[in-house]
Description:
Layout: H1 19-38, E1 40-43, H2 59-65, E2 91-94, H3 95-98, H4 102-113, H5 118-128, H6 133-149, H7 154-157, H8 160-166, H9 170-175, E3 179-184, E4 190-195, H10 206-223, E5 231-236, H11 247-260, E6 265-271, H12 277-284, H13 290-293, E7 296-299, H14 344-371, H15 377-397
Parallel strand pairs: 4-5, 5-6, 6-7
Antiparallel strand pairs: 1-2, 3-4
Helix pairs in contact: 1-4, 1-5, 1-6, 1-14, 4-6, 5-6, 10-11, 14-15
Amino acid sequence: xxxxxxxxxxxxxxxxxxxxxxxxxxxxxxxxxxxxxxxxxxxxxxxxxxxxxxxxxxxxxxxxxxxxxxxxxxxxxxxxxxxxxxxxxxxxxxxxxxxxxxxxxxxxxxxxxxxxxxxxxxxxxxxxxxxxxxxxxxxxxxxxxxxxxxxxxxxxxxxxxxxxxxxxxxxxxxxxxxxxxxxxxxxxxxxxxxxxxxxxxxxxxxxxxxxxxxxxxxxxxxxxxxxxxxxxxxxxxxxxxxxxxxxxxxxxxxxxxxxxxxxxxxxxxxxxxxxxxxxxxxxxxxxxxxxxxxxxxxxxxxxxxxxxxxxxxxxxxxxxxxxxxxxxxxxxxxxxxxxxxxxxxxxxxxxxxxxxxxxxxxxxxxxxxxxxxxxxxxxxxxxxxxxxxxxxxxxxxxxxxxxxxxxxxxxxxxxxxxxxxxxxxx
Length: 426
């Protein structure tokens, strides 16, 4: 499922696949396993796989169920006319061309699965490439290469203090509330608030901002609760001036959502944009993929936010709309919070258990592909075991973040079993 318990068949999420979508998923898994084994794979695209299914329900509710929808100015997108499938020549993909080894693929695959159903990760890339298996595999492998080059894992293995040493003013960005995550919208998506007026490009090194963006992506994934798979962003442009604009950072953020964390963005709300912003928008708009652009909506009055976020969840800084007396406070690291990461024997044990489960899932996937069954109970059981094992392994392999630290009331947002509790002060 995607964002709601009644997501209809054909939306392309775990549990909602059409026969053609399930076939594409099997083909992509088969290609991943083959390229790990041989370093190369040749795929012949079946054009029938990327023909969208006939909607089972009215398109408007479906659009609403996967985000805020509405396009740039609130108009629902008109479904495209059916396109006649076109045959393509076989596509050969090699790890050498991508710059990865078979070991790299296996490592990045399971590092990226984290607490999700493994199919959920693979399906993100299939949906992003409209069920074209070859293009989906290429996109997936390039994302793995990027994660390797960017050393994405260091935002997980380093604590906030270590990240501050490696990337000066990293903690300052967290402390000042330039961005914060608080609560969920009407579709259960965690909401990321970006206070653009607090940002000036020259106030910190660009590498720090890149690392902060990756940190937000990787931390945000922990806050998303199944069956939800996406987050919502609010760019608050109150008091925005040209000195707050950072084109490089916007480009990096757009690239992350489009290429490296596809299908992770449910909605973008650009709030209270002043007149001066429209010159900026003319520069930004051509950079956007149509799928990302379709998720952007402009709002001006605080009351408009209530269309998307319950008043009880919306901070009362949005006057006359929000009821939540929330005040952002950064929770700093606590001495000894990452001591289990020093336990090499304990770490080796839980990592080995994780690796064994991953191997069993790959074996079950091979059997599923070979047998042609619609659903593999073994794979579903293993997916649940992998999720539980991830949270068992996490204290040994991943530094704590502020969502796992206790506030003054002794409460945490993110719990050891991966569930979340948002507290609203109404």
